């Protein structure tokens, strides 16, 4: 298909160089040239092709009206089914009306162009849709585009378009030809050229800043699975890149979990206050903690519900809102969706009451939202895998591996802070009899009952784990031997005093050991508690036993070695007379 793009390259091959650009970048360049006409109030000739659109948002219609009102002559190439063919393009009788030139739908889809010409300024951009090349994997995706501010190139573009209108739309040919002759480019204003160049430099700088923001967000996602850090980096980078007053990202909580919200406010702007409030099930759908955003984010819930239901972008432009007040500034919200599931939303508000959201700005929000949605899913999957690796699936308690890791950490803390640490081992009495009598389902119910009792009775700093089979273990930080024995007795009494549904009454035996009285390391403490548990079971079950101290065990062992002649009387005396210390020496004591 022959086009303006082909015609100009054929006649000005030395002056024009085709480059490949993303469609969003081409749209931004087209809008930039439109802004040149509007900002400088150029009574020029405007010829532009518009992509097919069976429906036109109000912001597009308002933009076309502004262009037609400013330009001395305006012509728009549109497809036959474009919504503009049936929409009013003049608000007032004195407004200039644009001329719509219908073209084949194939041409409307394949090419984009804009030509601006008057006596002191000229500009042209022509783009051709280019499918992704199949012969080279290294070629970047995008469309081919050329542009120029040279009067002779713009003149060639107008000549081609005049011939095209004469051939395709002869009824409008005289009007188009008269407009071209009255707006022929002659010379370029130096002042206007400098202004255009300055704005183009600022445009490229903003685009570079947005690319840097996206790269920083991607780096944060790659380097961490901590959602709070990722979200805070995201809102900071998006807020600064788009130069908005506020930016907020909210991630919906899983199940009954609370949502996670992070906010950004530009320096000097109204502070964004985040409060936590309880909401009822009739309002939030589930009981739990919801985040309420004060000030101009108070309407977040209404927008969030709308996005969750439709999963579509929501834009509120300054001009299309009809006189925005201080509490209703332009905003843009994009949903975060992963595999058709609503994850959350990203919202920005502008302090400029006349701001119109650019296509590239919405694209930035969409790109960031998609990236973070994937990061949220990966972080949650990692947390689930980590939870499954450290949790017993039947009881919901920590498993043995997790218990050993936690006990190792608690022992180090106890050594550093010179505080006691206790371990309680418990074993359900005659558990095999429960399985044989009531079945394994009843046995599983008994295990879950014991786990639930431990969660109810223990402190928040305590750790309960399933040690294996019908055995459970409890870690009690900062608890001495007397306190641990009291806790174990309370657990024993509660278990023995109530009936398990479907099973009846069950009891358990308990063994208690404390650091440093019964050992100086993780393995020694667990062995001491295990020996105490064995003594409780051997002594009749349903009771609590405390392990013997290290000094008592060492003395008994030395007596046995002396009786067998394995050590001398002097060695026995030195060992049994060694002064004991409640806490072993630490690295700071040596």
Describe the structure in your own words.
- The structure is a single chain.
- The protein is α+β, with helices and mostly antiparallel strands.
- Strand 13 and strand 14 form a beta hairpin.
- The N and C termini lie far apart (87 Å).
- Helix 5 runs antiparallel to helix 6 and helix 7 (190-223) packs parallel to helix 11.
- The strands form 5 sheets. Strands 1-7-6-5-2-3-4 form a 7-stranded mixed beta sheet, sandwiched between helices. A 5-stranded antiparallel beta sheet has the order 9-8-14-13-12, sandwiched between helices. Strands 16-17-15-20-21 form a 5-stranded mixed beta sheet, sandwiched between helices.
- Mean pLDDT is 81; it is low at 134-138, 271-297, 320-326, 574-583 and 585-590.
- Helices cover 46% and strands 20% of the residues.
- The protein is elongated and about 120 Å long.
Structural class: alpha+beta
- Please estimate the helix content: 40-55%
Unreliable parts: 134-138, 271-297, 320-326, 574-583, 585-590
- The oligomeric state is single chain
> Over the alpha carbons, how many angstroms does the gyration radius reach?
38 Å
Please count the helical segments. 18
Question: What is the CATH-assigned architecture of the largest domain?
Answer: 2-Layer Sandwich
- Count every beta strand, where a strand is a DSSP E run of 2 or more residues: 21
Quote the distance from N terminus to C terminus: 87 Å
How many separate structural domains? Answer: 3
User: What profile does the largest beta sheet have?
Assistant: 7 strands, mixed
Overall mean pLDDT stands at 81
Shape: elongated
Strand content: 15-25%
What is the CATH topology descriptor of the largest domain? Endonuclease, Chain A
């Amino acid at each position: 298909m022959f086009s303006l793009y082909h015609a100009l390259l054929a006649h000005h091959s030395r002056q024009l160089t085709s480059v490949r650009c993303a469609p969003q970048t081409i749209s931004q360049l087209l809008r930039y040239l439109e802004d040149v006409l509007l900002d400088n109030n150029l009574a020029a000739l405007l010829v532009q092709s518009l992509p097919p659109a069976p429906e036109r948002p109000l912001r597009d219609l308002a933009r076309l009206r502004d262009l037609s009102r400013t330009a001395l002559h305006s012509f728009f190439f549109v497809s036959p089914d474009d919504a503009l063919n049936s929409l009013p393009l003049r608000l007032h009788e004195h407004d200039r009306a644009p001329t719509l030139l219908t073209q084949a739908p194939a041409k409307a889809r394949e090419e984009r162009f804009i030509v601006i010409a008057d006596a002191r300024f000229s500009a042209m951009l022509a783009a051709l849709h280019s499918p992704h090349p199949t012969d080279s994997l290294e070629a970047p995706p995008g469309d081919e585009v050329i542009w120029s501010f040279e009067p002779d190139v713009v003149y060639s573009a107008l000549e081609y378009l005049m011939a095209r209108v004469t051939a395709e739309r002869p009824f409008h040919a005289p009007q188009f030809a008269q407009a071209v002759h009255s707006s022929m480019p002659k010379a370029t204003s130096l002042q206007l050229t400098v202004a255009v160049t300055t704005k183009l430099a600022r445009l490229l700088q903003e685009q570079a800043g947005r690319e840097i923001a996206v790269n920083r967000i991607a780096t944060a996602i790659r380097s961490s699975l901590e959602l709070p850090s990722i979200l805070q980096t995201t809102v900071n980078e998006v807020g600064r890149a788009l130069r908005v007053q506020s930016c907020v990202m909210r991630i919906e909580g899983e199940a009954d979990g609370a949502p996670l919200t992070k906010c950004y406010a530009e320096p000097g702007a109204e502070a964004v206050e985040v409060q936590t409030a309880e909401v009822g099930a009739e309002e939030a759908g589930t009981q739990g903690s919801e985040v309420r955003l004060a000030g101009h984010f108070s309407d977040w819930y209404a927008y969030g519900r709308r996005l969750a239901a439709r999963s579509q972008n929501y834009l509120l432009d300054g001009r299309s809102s009809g006189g925005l007040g201080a509490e209703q500034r332009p905003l843009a919200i994009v949903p975060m969706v992963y595999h058709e599931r609503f994850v959350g939303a990203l919202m920005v508000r502008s302090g400029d009451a006349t701001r119109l959201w650019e296509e590239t700005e919405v694209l930035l929000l969409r790109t960031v939202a998609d990236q973070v949605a994937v990061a949220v899913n990966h972080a949650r999957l990692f947390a689930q895998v980590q939870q499954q690796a450290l949790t017993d699936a039947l009881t919901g308690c920590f498993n043995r591996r997790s218990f050993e890791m936690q006990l190792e950490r608690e022992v180090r803390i106890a050594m550093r802070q010179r505080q006691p640490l206790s371990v309680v081992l418990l074993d359900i009495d005659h558990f095999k009899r429960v399985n044989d009598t009531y079945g394994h389902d009843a046995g599983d119910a008994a295990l879950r009952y014991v786990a639930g009792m431990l969660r109810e009775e223990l402190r928040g700093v305590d750790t309960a784990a399933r040690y294996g089979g019908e055995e459970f273990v409890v870690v009690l930080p900062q608890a001495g031997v007397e306190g641990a024995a009291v806790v174990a007795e309370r657990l024993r009494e509660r278990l023995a005093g109530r009936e398990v549904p479907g099973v009846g009454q069950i009891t358990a035996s308990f063994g208690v050991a404390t650091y440093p009285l019964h050992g100086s390391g993780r393995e020694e403490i667990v062995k001491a508690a295990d020996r105490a548990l064995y003594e409780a079971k051997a002594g009749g079950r349903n009771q609590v036993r405390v392990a013997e101290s290290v000094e008592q065990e060492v003395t008994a062992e030395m007596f046995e070695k002396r009786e067998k002649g394995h050590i001398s009387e002097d060695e026995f005396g030195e060992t049994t007379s060694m002064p004991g210390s409640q806490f072993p020496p630490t690295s700071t004591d040596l």
